[in-house]
Structures are given as structure tokens and as C-alpha cells.
Amino acid sequence: MKTSIVVPSRRQAQRDDLSSLGEPILQTRQLSLWYGKQQALDGVTLDIPKNKITAIIGPSGCGKSTLIRCFNRMNDLIPGVRIAGEIFYHHKNIQDPDVDPVEVRRRIGMVFQKPNPFPKSIYENVAFGLRINGFQGNLDRRVEGALRQAALWEEVTDYLHKKSGLDLSGGQQQRLCIARTVAIEPEVILMDEPCSSLDPIATAKIEDLMLELKRDYTVVIVTHNMQQAARVSDFTAFLYLGRLIEYGPTKKIFENPDKKETEDYITGKFG
Questions:
Q1: Which of 79, 95, 115, 224 has the fewest CB atoms within 10 Å around its CB?
Q2: How far is CA 66 from the centre of its chain?
Q3: Distances in Å between the alpha carbon of 3 and those of 72, 106, 132, 177, 185?
């Protein structure tokens, strides 16, 4: 029988040279991953702090998306994947046999690169996850709350049951997908290049939304946009060829990196 993940109380002791990191909610320890014979991650050790925005940057194919998909066990769904090392959520190894991956994905939600609303009404898009999780509360109130959190309520309130999610603009669709994610009240929201297909105005709205969301959620964002990482994130991790090259406060990573590879990537010398 699968058991629930027990969330322990907050630890009082604090930490090492990343003293501003705070209490980690997600951790990896020597995490490696292979797709068949191809290695995508190589010994990644990383702490993700609670109620902060952490950006994962690096060139295409460096393992960014693979890494965040480890956090909610999405890679389990890919044939031929092999994982070594440990992944912790609230200090519980999420790969332990008593952990239900469905519960992991409820607590650690995902927003994908391309908006993927369902061919249903705006209301039913947000309510979908609540229904399949057996939500017994006030559905109308929860849908409205999620749309408000996603800064979409005022734009769609007159069309909740009339318009399909597919009828919205690209930026609105992405915020609808964020509303669908927050409706089931996860603790962590993973965002895999959520603005890559959006125009600058829609991108700015999503960035403003991320800054609002971190009051209630932990946000991890994969991005190729260096300016975006600098604008919205508190911490930045730079991956290259599946390895974690450098991790720290975003200001330091962008203004005074320790590693030459980090500086070269940020300044556009490769990537």
C-alpha cells in the first residue's frame, strides 16, 4: 500500500555558504539519469529553497528539463529511463517504494513549455484536476480563487462556461494552465520554459504572476532567457552537459560567477 508523504516541521538550524538559501523543500544528491545508454544528468547535487523562485539555465540539451521532471517523477513515464542518486521532498526520498508518484505530482505541479488547455470550458479546465482528485468543497469558490491567483479572473469571468480554453490567447492559455495547476494546491510549481512561445506583453504578465505566486508556492523555472532569469529568480543553477556547474543567489551568478563556464555562458560566448 502506498503511504502519504509526511511533511515534517521546519528545522531551526541553518546552513553553509548558501546561507541565504533557507530551508530546502526539494533536494537532489548525486542525481544521475540515463535515457537508455545516453546520460542526461551527471551527479547533480542541489537544494531548492521554499517560497523562492529558482531558475535553471544552460544551453539546449544540458539536462534542464530532465532535472525538473525528476522533481515530480515525470521521467517515470518514459521507457528506458534509469536514475541513480536521491531526490528528496521535505527530506523524504520520493523514489522510495512507499511513495505514490500520483501524490508527488499533486504536491509538485508542472506547467509546460507550450500551453496545453483542454478542449473544455474555462471553468472545466480549472475544475478538472479537482474533480479527478475527489474534491468535496465549494468548487465554484476554488475555481474562482485559482483564476484570481493566475491573474485571469477579471478577463474571463463573463465567459467561464461559454468559452473553451482553446479560444483564449496564448498568454491567457498559459495562465489558465497555471490556474489549473494551483487549483489543486500544490506546494511547488515547476515551469518548463513557460514563456518561450509568448510575446513580450504576455511574457511580462507571466513574470509578474511568478513573483506573486512565490508568496504561496515554491517556483522552479527552466529558461533560456538570461534576462528573464535575472529579473524573476532568487537563485540560479547553471547546468552544462548534464552537470551542475554553479548554483547560488541570482545576483551573484550574473554579476560575479565563480566558474569561467558560467561567465562564458551568461555573456553569450557559447550556448
A1: 79
A2: 12
A3: 16, 14, 19, 28, 19
Q: Give me the long-range contacts of 73-78 (CB less than 8 A, separation at least 24).
A: 73/101, 73/104, 73/105, 74/105, 74/110, 75/33, 76/101, 78/35
Q: Which domains does the chain have, with CATH numbers?
A: 22-266 (3.40.50.300)
Residues 184, 142: Cα–Cα separation, whole Å: 9
Sign of CA dihedral 19, 105, 94, 37: negative
Question: What mean pLDDT is reported for the chain?
Answer: 90
| pLDDT at residue 81, as a whole number | 95
Give the chain's residues under pLDDT 70. Answer: 1-21, 271
Query: Exposed, middle or buried by CB within 10 Å (0-12, 13-18, 19+), for 144?
Result: middle
The pLDDT value recorded for residue 146 is 95
pLDDT of residue 18: 54
Cell numbers at 181, concatenated: 495547476
- Return the pLDDT at 197: 83
Find cell 508556492 and name the residue.
217
Helix runs in the chain, H state only: 64-71, 101-107, 122-132, 139-149, 153-156, 170-183, 200-213, 226-232, 250-255, 260-266
Q: Alpha-carbon distance 117 to 95, whole Å?
A: 29
